[in-house]
Amino acid sequence: MFGSLANAWKIPELRKKLIFTAAMIVIYRLGAHVPVPGVDVNAINQFIKSGQGDILGFLNLFSGGALTRFAVFALGIMPYITASIILQLLTMAFPSLKELAREGEAGQRKITQYTRYLTVALALAQSVGFTILFRQQGILQLNGLKFYEIVITLTAGTVLLMWIGELMTQHGIGNGISLLIFASIVSGLIPGLYRFLNPSTTSVFTIVVMLGIGAVVIAGIVMVQQGQRRINIQYAKRQIGRRMTTGGSTYLPLSINMAGVIPVIFASSVLMFPPTIARFFPGNLAQGFANWLRPSGPAFLIIEAIFIVGFTYFYTAVQFDPVERASDLKKYGGFIPGIRPGRPTAVYLDRVLTRLTLPGAIFLAAIAVLPSILINTLGITFYFGGTSILIVVGVALQTMQQMESQLLMRHYEGFLK
Q1: Which residues of 373-401 are buried (b: 16+ CB within 10 A; e: fewer)?
Q2: How big is the chain by its Cα radius of gyration, in Å?
Q3: Identical topology for domains 1-187 and 199-382
């Protein structure tokens, strides 16, 4: 492990990417500690922490504690993720957007531009909502000018964070948006472990049991994330000009969980939206709905599991098109032994991928839900729930795989054996 890190540091290009990624994360964490002007940070902190299992506490986890400080980055990156979900769903529903997505780089730039506009709109609406909520609770005493100043600051913070995430994706290591969420969750790891490992509040037996379960869960996540179904591909001999190319064989890797941790992030962000909006409305009906759909509650966990399974299939379909892959194989003279090229190959790939995705989707849903059920059953306070563990381990694996490819290109031994 340490030898691989030393090898990664020797490569100038990889070293620059690592330094750039680390610098962007430092900027993000600094922005998460700078409060917006004219707010009582202590009052907001006490209000959020007073509601155990409340949706605001869950949002605070994904913002890295910035919401309790009502910092510049208090909204986190969740408006951008929500906008991405909406655009991807619209792309599947509207043929014009679907054609735009197939236009290659130019079409993708246009969709990215639409996502940015929608992010600004969602961030503006969410910043207005949070400001009104805290004013209704008597935490913020605001006049008209101060209200608009806070709203603009929070919206600008989300836009800046979106830009930082895109820069990290382009010039750093890994997916920038996922790394920002990773940094948010990990930022509370040490205080959370300190509270959990305190013998005065948690028994030794509970600590041993939870650490054992955590180790098993992490090992299971790694196994599923790395698991593949390899489909043999045979290439026929082809004549290119006067030269005859020899046929060969390779394999097409189909991952058990091709969607990674994206379905977990999608499901969490979608489920956080309705109760967050409900908190902004007075009345017993709205507050009752927010309490019913609170994180770690039965309704939230059941719907989250269903959403994770659905989003896993949805994102897998976005990532892998059997018809397009079968067409590419036929174009380059490749075929699956025993399967005719063309449409039969596409049907075969679709059937294999559907069956392969099911256990991966069920595993994601189980890991996201079962630790939270166990924590509620034992009645303990543990910083990491199932969703947090999935995101942290999944993003770490994806980042290490990108570093792995960089190392193997330069004939270095990688991280993953």
Answers
A1: ebbeeeebebbbbbbbbbbbbbbbbbbbb
A2: 24
A3: yes
Q: In what order do the strands lie in the sheet with 249-255?
A: 249-255, 228-235, 334-335
Give the separation between CA 401 and CA 175, rounded to whole angstroms. 11
- How is 378-391 classified by DSSP, letter by letter? HT---S--HHHHHH
Domain 1-187 in CATH 1.10.3370.10: yes
CATH number of the domain located at residue range(s) 199-382 in this protein? 1.10.3370.10
Region for 342 from its dihedrals, namely left if φ exceeds 0, alpha if ψ lies in -120 to 50, beta otherwise: left
Tokens, residue 245: 């190319």
Which pair of structure tokens corresponds to residue 42? Answer: 């202590």
Length in residues, the chain: 417
Place of tokens 């500690």: 33
Q: What is the pTM of this model?
A: 0.76
Q: Which residue has the tokens 């955590």?
A: 214
CA distance 27 to 329: 45
Spatial CB neighbours of 234, under 8 Å, sequence gap ≥ 6: 247, 248, 249, 334, 335, 336, 337
Per-residue confidence in pLDDT tens, the chain, 417 aa: 556 667 777 778 888 888 899 999 999 999 888 888 777 778 787 777 765 446 677 777 778 778 888 888 988 888 888 888 888 778 877 788 878 877 777 888 888 899 999 999 999 988 888 888 787 777 777 666 788 888 899 999 999 999 999 999 888 888 888 888 888 888 877 777 777 676 666 677 777 777 787 788 888 888 887 888 888 888 776 655 566 555 577 888 888 888 777 788 788 778 877 777 776 666 677 777 777 777 777 888 888 889 989 888 888 887 788 888 888 888 877 888 888 888 888 888 889 888 888 888 888 888 888 777 776 676 665 556 667 777 888 888 888 877 777 777 666 555 555
For residues 196 and 10, give the distance between their C-alpha atoms in angstroms, rounded to a whole number.
39
- The domain locations on the chain are 1-187, 199-382
State the Cα–Cα distance between residues 315 and 303, nearest whole angstrom.
18
